[in-house]
């Protein structure tokens, strides 16, 4: 299938819609940057942000680096700064400061840089209702392209491609408010990605969905990942973290863990301090351990749990 994130730069004016510009902090991640590879798509170091009137920083010097094609999960307790980070990465807020704040090569500390980054970083929020603006699905998917003044032919082709990609072709004339939650979120996602992106930031995209809708959205995200799009996936669902290339945990606006997924969940003390859970299989394994049947390494999926139980007799 044709990649969603083609390298063509659409003509026209910047859009104000789902486009957003992330910044990357340059901690080496060990991922993509091998021989001649591109710079990280997100390169942020010491990123600070404070809401007007607030007495403390929402982000107090945050570092984050994301390589192209990397899938990074972001977790943290309520109020730890995940959504603030998502908005900053999307170029939707102005940082209070940073040593470095670059998204797709654009400096997020400048107005022009944020504007440019907004084209290349798409942000999908928790509530699809807030992101659907048009009278029908098709127009919603086209919205960002219209803002960018794409030529009608090219726009039609791109919209058709997005509708097909997200299983929305049969719903193209439907009014968005009549859709299921999963269909709404897929429509919003198709709209964000209709504009060619290099990075997709998802802020708890399944939090308001029922299990069926959640499955639909996760499947769509998995396909994007196979496609090589860089994804920053904010979630409170630990089962959604398990397959990530890396996980970043926030506490009070700073990164307290950045590394591989097993490394986070093996530090149960940290996980508990952060108010996070373990993936369901991990919680079961801990209960088994308390009953005198420890499993090493800690299984994070039900398949791994079943395998570990088989192996341990
Ligand atoms: N519009 C706002 N005005 C003032 N303070 C805000 C605003 N939005 C968030 N904050 C504060 O900034 C901090 C970070 O909030 P943020 O929404 O980024 O956290 P979060 O990790 O996304 O939380 P949640 O899990 O509840 O979505 C919190 O202390 C929060 O109270
Ligand atoms: Mg949030």
List the bound ligands. adenosine-5'-triphosphate, magnesium ion
Helical element count?
10
Oligomer description: single chain
Please give the CATH class of the largest domain. Answer: Alpha Beta
What is the mean pLDDT? 89
What would CATH call the architecture of the largest domain?
3-Layer(aba) Sandwich
Integer-rounded radius of gyration: 20 Å
Unreliable stretches (pLDDT < 50, length at least 5) are: 6-35
CATH superfamily of the largest domain: P-loop containing nucleotide triphosphate hydrolases
Tell me about the biggest sheet? 7 strands, mixed
Taken as a percent bin, the fraction of beta residues is 15-25%
Query: Share of helix among residues?
Result: 25-40%
User: What is the CATH fold-level name of the largest domain?
Assistant: Rossmann fold
- Following the backbone from N to C, one meets helices and strands in this order, namely EEEEHEEHEHHHEHEEEHHHH
